[in-house]
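Service request form, structural biology core

Requester: graduate student, group of Dr. S.
Request type: structure prediction, single chain
Budget code: on file
Notes: please return the result as structure tokens.

Sequence provided:
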Amino acid sequence: MKLSFRPDIPAGYNQTQAKVYARLRLQVLFSVFFCYSAYYLVRKDFVLVMPDLVSEGWSKSELGTVMAVMTVSYGLSNFVMGFVADRFSTRWLMPLCLLVSGLVSLALAGATWFSCPFLVIALLMTINGWVQGLGWPSSAKVIAHWFQREERGRATSFWNLSNNFGAGLLGPLAIFALAVFTFWQSKLVLPAVLAIGSALLCVFWIRDRPEDCGLPPLLEKESEEKLGRSQLDTHDSGGVRGFVQTCLTMPDLWLLALLNMCVYFIRYGVIDWVPLYMTEARGFSFEVASWAFATFEFAAIPGTLLCGYISDRVFHGKRVPMNLLNMSLVLLALLGYWHCNADHWLQPVCMLAVIGFLIYGCVVLLHVHIIDIAPRRYVAACVGFCGLFGYVLGASGANLLLGRVVDSWGWDGAFQLITANGVVCLVLLLILWLRDNNRLGAEAVPSEQPLVE
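Core staff response, request fulfilled:
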């Protein structure tokens, strides 16, 4: 990590400040990584109890509705909490919301133990989705303030591994919890206890900006200064009004929001239904389904790091070319997962590993692209805006629609819907690529200078 993030001395820093900065930014990056990993422990744990709820009489449509309620709440919170994260301290807000999420997960375990009605479960999932919504905007804010453009691909790809690390631990934790405690609600209790402990630790490690540690703020590169001047109006009033005037007039932000919606539909359309698909359609055991779930997440680790490194070093900060390649391969892997031989668990698990390797690369490059184009004062709000599309329309659509599609047309109908979203992703990426090329071409043409006698 030190070799990968060995910074030059930032402008305005002396040698002593540069050493402190190099140490602190790694501390901060590891802190938000650790904290967001714990967020995932209490966000995705409900997925692993879905087969248990089906055995107790829940329909797939009801499960899809509960998951959709949470993702809609999460998406709305992403947007609202983006403005909160821009204005208040990440150091306190991020662990506080994690603590609340852990307590809600304990409440979910109790509600399922006492067979509470659907509305109680839906309400708890709504609260969990809302407090979870602060995690990503806060992390994006920290990365934008501690890392420069040419480093953000690597920094964000490393941070994005927290998704896989947290969710990937859930499978082994569920197996361990069942072996030790025997009741299936323990799959909710153990992650909740770990999340609450993590929240208490992260308060001591996270810092919002270099200025909070007595260091000068990082200066923007010349290219970012030009972009910022074009985006920030001299009458920018800040807050929601400033965001609307400044950011919602950017066509690329809308394209990235739509792309986020489709990518999240694919991501959650695959991973959220792995336990049920593997046990019901494929006929595998819960242990095989749990390890398949973990394989999807852990396979993303090398893929995510590779994508961030290539986009920084090979494509010099351009995110779209690598994303186009990734999405094309995702579609091929998705077809393999859909049509592979059902006689043995190895083939579908390998296809899941390939999808996980690729799809999280798409997610992280999309995240970095948003950070790159967003004015620094509106980073959290911009990622929250795109998160609104990703979760309210993308992830919730995957949960709400796929449950009904499987009930009505079977798993083939679900895979057809996921594949269609992949095709839309390719179209949106091509539009972004054309816009980037046109913009670079316009910048390359020298403006006419007046003749000086």
